[in-house]
Specification:
CATH superfamily of the largest domain in chain A: Oxidoreductase, molybdopterin-binding domain
CATH class of the domain at 19-94 and 125-212 in chain B: Mainly Alpha
Oligomer: heterodimer
Number of strands of chain B: 2
CATH architecture of the largest domain in chain A: Alpha-Beta Complex
Radius of gyration of chain A: 26 Å
CATH architecture of the domain at 19-94 and 125-212 in chain B: Up-down Bundle
Largest sheet of chain B: 2 strands, antiparallel
Radius of gyration of chain B: 22 Å
Largest interface: A-B, 65 and 71 residues
Strand content of chain B: under 5%
Number of helices of chain A: 5
Number of helices of chain B: 13
Strand content of chain A: 15-25%
Structural class of chain B: mainly alpha
Number of domains of chain A: 2
Shape of chain A: elongated
CATH superfamily of the domain at 19-94 and 125-212 in chain B: Transmembrane di-heme cytochromes, Chain C
Order of helices and strands of chain A: HEEHEEHEEHEEEEH
Distance between the termini of chain A: 35 Å
CATH topology of the domain at 19-94 and 125-212 in chain B: Fumarate Reductase Cytochrome B subunit
Distance between the termini of chain B: 24 Å
Strand order of the largest sheet of chain B: 1-2
CATH topology of the largest domain in chain A: Sulfite Oxidase, Chain A, domain 2
Structural class of chain A: alpha+beta
């Protein structure tokens, strides 16, 4: 933040140096460069600092009834996005229906209790957002997507899936091969409790090996097709195959 | 012996130019951008607000474009012939005298001691707090722009850097909110100083109390101008 040199000009009629007496030091520039340096350290080492901070902040957040400590940056907290123009879908467990249609032998409509009656799968994983925030050790429970597909029966020639949220605002896609993985579930529990409305409850997709935007919230419909149709966030420029650490520029 | 003077002249001698037009324009353009950035940033960050407002892509766009525009007011006001005042003030922000350090050290003292101590100091156009604020804002613009760029154009950067940039962006944003609230608080407590950011001028009386070395500096500059004019006058 040093000013460029003033024009030399004639021996001056204006004071260009406000303190010609000496005895001053460029503290302003040091503070400025210090902040810039801290910022650079933050970019390079911030992820490690953040996990260190988490060990301190997490116990505080667990015992904070006000929830204000969740606003502390770097506490590995969830960031809730609302891309739509309206409120989040509000669907009760009783009203909930999941439709499976498209290239299937038997189109299905599953209720919340239907899902609970199927063999459960539990996953504990770090939730990783493509923009950088993470939440470690998130506990999930639900039904393997492949289990649901098997129940409906996928027709020959099918190669992809489309997912729709109940307000039809958010959409997602997976290839059929991806959908058969053992770490992709239709989840009705998250963080050890029923999935809340703001996390996409009563039922959402959880695609563990991919960035968070693939884990579509407020899941209401799965369509089996023969082509991958990029979902909402992919239309905003994110990778369709969103492998953590191996997509979106990595 | 005094010569009679017009009331207008007398008034103008009582007022000093604190911020010229380019400086005021830069300040208020900055203020608007910071205001929009803080507002949209809070919406993007606080989940409950984000749910209420929605339209994430639009809010995100506003935040990014205002962020990209953030360095422009300062850069434009610094360049060119109109930037003389701001360039001089930038060098004032940079240089700290021994009294500036004393002024800052007195911040931790109780009020009576602090005020008595500061009254005894010879402070220039800006006190140490204002100098710190200026350096902070300068640093903030660079760091927020850099970390924001990593967040927005994430492709070339390793995942750890994206996390780090997000982390630094959020913590610095918290600091910015605190500093901006403090800045507005100090301005509201000193209406004369606040008015000078609208009108440009401030009373000599105020300057003698808060920025005595600046008054001396201004007077010396005026005297030098007068002397030069006299020397050039043909007689």
């Amino acid at each position: 933040m040093e000013s460029p040199p003033e024009d030399p000009g004639p021996p001056s009629t204006e004071t260009t140096d406000p303190d010609p007496s000496g005895g001053t030091s460029p503290v302003g520039r040091r503070v400025f460069l210090g902040i810039v340096g801290l910022g650079a350290v933050g970019i390079v080492a911030g992820s490690r600092i953040e996990s260190g901070l988490h060990t301190v902040v997490a116990p505080l957040q667990a015992h904070d009834p006000t929830g204000l400590s969740n606003l502390i940056p770097g506490g590995n907290q969830w960031e809730i996005y609302n891309a739509s123009n309206g409120a989040f879908p509000d669907v009760s467990q009783e009203e909930f229906q999941l439709n499976i249609d498209g290239m299937v032998d038997t189109p299905l409509t599953l209720s919340y209790t239907d899902l609970q009656a199927m063999p459960p799968t539990t996953l504990v994983k770090t939730f990783q957002c493509v923009t950088g925030w993470t939440v470690p050790d998130v506990h999930w429970q639900g039904v393997l997507l492949s289990e649901i597909l098997d129940r409906a029966g996928v027709k020959a020639g099918a190669s992809a899936l489309r997912f729709f949220s109940s307000d039809n605002f958010d959409t997602e896609s997976l290839t059929l091969a991806q959908a058969r993985r053992p770490d992709i579930i239709v989840a009705y529990q998250m963080l050890g409790a029923p999935v809340t409305r703001e996390h996409g409850g009563p039922v959402r997709l959880y695609v563990a090996p991919m960035y968070g935007y693939k884990s579509l919230k407020w899941l209401s419909r799965i369509t089996v097709t023969n082509e991958v149709v990029p979902g909402y966030w992919e239309q905003q420029g994110y990778s369709v195959d969103a492998w953590i650490g191996n997509s979106n520029g990595l | 012996m005094t010569t009679p003077r017009s009331p207008a002249r007398r008034r103008s001698e009582k007022m000093l130019l604190r911020f010229d037009g380019a400086e005021r324009a830069a300040h208020w353009a900055n203020a608007v951008l910071f205001f929009v950035l803080i507002g949209t940033g809070i919406i993007l960050y606080v989940g409950q607000l984000s749910i209420l407002v929605g339209r994430r892509v639009l809010i995100d766009d506003i935040h990014v474009y205002c962020g990209l525009a953030l360095p422009l007011p300062l850069l434009l006001s610094l360049s060119g012939s109109w930037g003389k005042g701001l360039r001089a003030d930038l060098s004032r922000f940079n240089r700290w005298s021994a009294d500036d350090r004393r002024w800052l050290r007195l911040s931790v003292k109780a009020r009576p001691e602090r005020e008595a101590g500061r009254d005894a100091l010879i402070i220039g156009k800006f006190n140490a707090g204002q100098k710190l604020n200026a350096a902070f804002v300068g640093g903030v613009i660079v760091v927020m722009l850099a970390t924001g760029a990593v967040m927005h154009w994430y492709s070339p950067w390793p995942l750890a850097w994206r996390t780090g940039a997000t982390f630094a962006h959020q913590w610095l944003a918290l600091a910015v909110v605190i500093v901006v609230v403090g800045h507005i608080g100090y301005a509201l407590r000193d209406p004369a100083a606040l008015r000078s950011m609208f009108k440009g001028t401030i009373s000599r009386r105020w300057a003698l109390r808060h920025a005595p070395a600046w008054v001396v500096e201004t007077d010396a500059a005026q005297l030098a101008t007068k002397t030069a004019a006299k020397a050039n006058r043909p007689d």
